[in-house]
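Deliverable D2.4 — example input (structure tokens):
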């Protein structure tokens, strides 16, 4: 499997972990010193504890039902990779009504212990008019 395929599979596993609300798998998919921005971020999130706090917000407010990665670009620079992607995240609200959020992200991956792991991200909603 190529590095690009391994990284893209990792991103798919993160999305699937959100759908399954598998907090342990979500946490394991990120470095302890993860840094970045998530949907509800108003500051730089520093460390896995900040990340998981925002994950709790997302799991409570966006009960995932599906996702699709629509486009991606992966640039590998030695043991560092920069990943750009556009995705759709589907969820159900409290009334069971289906919604979708268009997302754009830049993820930072590092090669660690023979594999790739996410060390940072900036994920946000794509504005729609």
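Example output (designed residues):
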């Amino acid at each position: 499997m190529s590095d690009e395929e391994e990284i893209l599979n990792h991103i798919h596993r993160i999305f699937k972990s959100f759908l399954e609300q598998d907090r342990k798998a979500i946490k394991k998919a990120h470095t302890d010193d993860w840094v970045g921005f998530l949907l509800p971020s108003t500051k730089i999130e520093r460390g896995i504890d900040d990340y998981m706090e925002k994950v709790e917000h997302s799991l409570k407010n966006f009960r995932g039902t599906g996702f699709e990665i629509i486009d991606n670009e992966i640039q590998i620079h030695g043991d560092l990779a920069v990943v750009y992607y556009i995705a759709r995240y589907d969820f159900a609200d409290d009334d069971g009504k289906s919604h979708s959020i268009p997302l754009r992200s830049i993820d930072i991956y590092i090669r660690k212990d023979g594999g790739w792991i996410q060390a940072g991200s900036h994920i946000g909603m794509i504005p729609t008019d």
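The domain at 3-125 is CATH 3.10.450.50 (Nuclear Transport Factor 2; Chain: A,).
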